[in-house]
Design brief:
This protein has 19 helices and twelve strands. The protein is an alpha/beta fold and about 475 residues long. It has three domains: about 170 residues, NAD(P)-binding Rossmann-like Domain (Rossmann fold, 3-Layer(aba) Sandwich), CATH 3.40.50; about 250 residues, N-(1-d-carboxylethyl)-l-norvaline Dehydrogenase, domain 2, CATH 1.10.1040; about 45 residues, Up-down Bundle (Single alpha-helices involved in coiled-coils or other helix-helix interfaces). Strand 5, helix 5 and strand 6 form a beta-alpha-beta unit. About 45% of the residues are buried. Bound molecules: nicotinamide 8-bromo-adenine dinucleotide phosphate. Nicotinamide 8-bromo-adenine dinucleotide phosphate (NBP) binds next to helix 1, strand 6 and helix 6.
Length: about 475
C-alpha cells in the first residue's frame, strides 16, 4: 500500500475541511483525532472515495507516512500543541516536518522552531485564514518557521490555497514565528475592518435613519467600488436577511461582541514595539465596551441622549461615510504594515511585504481588491517605509480627508461613537504634523522627574535640563546641557 503524503491531527471543523481540500488535490492523507468517534464519523460521512485513511494512534499515523514525514496539527493553540509535539518526537526521524496550522502565538512558534531545530526536526508554524469555507475550497496560508522544510510542503500548500489571477495566496513568510505573527496582524486588521464597517452601519442606521434594507442596498453598491471586499459583501448580505417574523435579523442580535484574543495580541505587540496601532487597538476596546451590556443599559437611563434630528443633506453624508470608511481602512493597513516592519527589525526576519498582501488578497476574511494596490506599492518600492508615501494612497487619503472629518463630526454631533474612524483620523493628523504637543510632555517630564529634553535649536541627542522647581518666582530660566 502506498504511503500517505501528509498526516493531519485534529479533525474539528478546520482539520476536516483541510483534509478534504488536500485529498481533492490528489494527495493521500492520513488522519488522527483524540476522540476516535470523530475519526469514524468523518471517514463514514465525508471521505467517500477520496484517498484518506483514519488511524487511532499517533504511532500508526506516523508509520503510514512517506519520508520525510509531514505531520500537520489542527488543534487549539497552547499547551495541546506542546504536548502533541512531545508525543510525536519519539516517532519521528531527522528531517521530518511538524506543521502547526492552528492560531498559535508567534512567540510560542519561535520557541518551538528553535527547540525542534536542535533535535533536527523541521518545524513550520503557519497561519491559515478563511474559516471553514476557506479551509475547504482555498484558504490564505502564511507559513513561517524552519525554511528547510518549505520546499517539501510547498507543492501541497500552494495547491490547496486560494488563487488570485492564477497566483497562490501562500508563500514563505519568514523565519521562526513570522507566519503566525503575520496571521496575528491579519486578525488585528480583521478586527479593525469589522469595527469601521460597524461604525459606518450605525451612522447610516441611527444617524441617517436608514432601514436595514436601505443599508443592504448601500453596502452592495459600495462593494462594487474601491471598498470591494469580503467583509463589505457579507455585511450587505447580513442586512438583507430577515428573522422568522419578517424583521431584519440584525435587530435581534445582542450588541455584545465576543473575541478570542488575536486582536488583543496584536495590540500588545504594538505596545511592546512602540508602534501607534490605534485603530486596531480601539477596535479591541470597542468590543470590550460592547461586552458591558448591563452597565451600558443603566448608563443610558442616567445620561439619556437628546432626540436625534435627521440631517437634510443625507446623500452628502452617505458619501462622506463611504470616504471615511475607505480612508480609515487605508490607515488600518498602514499601521499594520508599520507593525510588521518593526517586528521584522526587532526579530531579524526578512519579510516580503508585497507577498504578504498577495497572501491576504484571496481566501481570507480581509480579502479585498484594495490589497492589490498594497502589493503593487511594495513590489514597486520594497523599501517603502509607509504606504502613505505611495502616490496611490497619498491621492486616496487627500481626496477622502474632508469627508472623513465631516463623518467624525457627524458622529460626535449625533452622539454615535466612531472610535476606530476617529482614532484613524487622530493618527493621520499626528503623522502629518511636523510639530505635535510632545514638547509639553517633555517639559512636564523634566519638571517632575528631571528626565531632560532635547532642544529645537541643538543637535538631536544633546540633552538639557531646567531647574524648574527653584525658579523663585522668576519666569526666565536657563536650560543647562547635561
Ligand atoms: P479546535 O480548536 O476546536 O480544536 C479541537 C480539535 O483538536 C478536536 O478535533 C480535538 O479532538 C483535537 N485534539 C487533539 Br487531536 N488532541 C487534543 C488535545 N490533547 N486536547 C484538545 N483537543 C485535541 O478546532 P478548529 O476550530 O478546527 O481549529 C483548529 C485550529 O485552527 C485552532 O488553533 C484554531 O484557532 C485555528 N483556526 C480556526 C479557524 C476557524 O474558523 N475555526 C480559522 C483559522 C484558524 P476531540 O474531538 O477529541 O475534541
Amino acid at each position: 500500500m502506498t504511503q500517505a503524503d501528509i498526516g493531519l491531527i485534529g479533525l474539528a471543523v478546520m482539520g476536516q475541511n483541510l483534509v478534504l481540500n488536500i485529498a481533492d488535490h490528489g494527495y493521500k492523507v492520513s488522519v488522527y483525532n483524540r476522540s476516535p468517534e470523530r475519526t469514524d464519523a468523518f471517514i463514514d460521512e465525508s471521505v467517500e472515495d477520496r484517498p484518506i485513511e483514519g488511524f487511532y494512534s499517533l504511532q500508526d499515523l506516523v508509520a503510514s507516512l512517506s519520508r520525510p514525514r509531514k505531520v500537520m496539527m489542527m488543534v487549539k493553540a497552547g499547551a495541546v500543541v506542546d504536548s502533541l509535539i512531545d508525543s510525536l518526537l519519539p516517532l519521528l526521524d531527522k528531517g521530518d516536518i511538524i506543521i502547526d496550522g492552528g492560531n498559535s502565538l508567534y512567540s510560542d512558534t519561535s520557541r518551538r522552531t528553535k527547540a525542534l531545530k536542535e533535535k533536527d526536526i523541521l518545524f513550520i508554524g503557519t497561519g491559515i485564514s478563511g474559516g471553514e469555507e476557506g479551509a475547504r475550497h482555498g484558504p490564505s496560508i502564511m507559513p513561517g518557521g524552519n525554511v528547510e522544510g518549505w520546499e517539501t510542503v510547498r507543492p501541497i500548500f500552494q495547491a490547496i490555497s486560494a488563487k488570485v489571477d492564477g497566483e497562490a495566496c501562500c508563500d514563505w513568510v519568514g523565519e521562526e514565528g513570522a507566519g503566525h505573527y503575520i496571521k496575528m496582524v491579519h486578525n488585528g486588521i480583521e478586527y479593525g475592518d469589522m469595527q469601521i464597517i460597524s461604525e459606518a452601519y450605525q451612522l447610516m442606521r441611527e444617524g441617517l435613519g436608514m432601514s436595514a434594507q436601505a443599508c443592504h442596498e448601500q453596502f452592495s453598491k459600495w462593494n462594487k467600488g474601491v471598498l470591494d471586499s469580503y467583509l463589505i459583501e457579507i455585511t450587505a448580505e447580513i442586512l438583507r436577511i430577515k428573522d422568522s417574523d419578517g424583521e431584519p435579523i440584525i435587530d435581534k442580535i445582542l450588541d455584545a461582541a465576543g473575541q478570542k484574543g488575536t486582536g488583543k495580541w496584536t495590540g500588545i505587540s504594538a505596545l511592546e514595539m512602540g508602534i501607534p496601532l490605534n485603530l486596531i487597538t480601539e477596535s479591541v476596546y470597542a468590543r470590550c465596551l460592547s461586552a458591558l451590556k448591563e452597565e451600558r443599559v443603566q448608563a443610558s437611563t442616567l445620561y439619556p441622549r437628546e432626540a436625534r434630528i435627521l440631517p437634510e443633506n443625507k446623500e452628502a453624508i452617505l458619501e462622506a461615510i463611504h470616504d471615511a470608511l475607505y480612508a480609515s481602512k487605508i490607515i488600518s493597513y498602514i499601521q499594520g504594515y508599520m507593525l510588521m516592519r518593526e517586528a521584522a527589525k526587532s526579530f531579524e526576519w526578512d519579510l516580503n511585504y508585497g507577498g504578504i498582501a498577495l497572501m491576504w488578497r484571496g481566501g481570507c476574511i480581509i480579502r479585498s481588491a484594495f490589497l492589490g494596490e498594497i502589493r503593487r506599492a511594495y513590489d514597486e518600492r520594497p523599501e517603502l517605509s509607509s504606504l502613505l508615501q505611495d502616490p496611490f494612497f497619498e491621492l486616496a487619503i487627500k481626496r477622502a480627508e474632508p469627508s472623513w472629518r465631516k463623518t467624525v463630526i457627524f458622529g460626535i454631533e449625533s452622539s454615535i461613537p466612531t472610535p476606530a474612524m476617529s482614532s484613524a483620523l487622530a493618527f493621520f493628523d499626528g503623522y502629518r504634523s511636523a510639530r505635535v504637543s510632545a514638547n509639553m510632555i517633555q517639559a512636564q517630564r523634566d519638571f517632575f522627574g528631571a528626565h531632560t529634553y532635547e532642544r529645537v535649536d541643538a543637535p538631536r541627542g544633546q540633552r538639557f535640563h531646567t531647574d524648574w522647581i527653584h525658579s523663585d518666582g522668576k519666569d526666565t530660566l536657563a536650560s543647562k546641557k547635561v
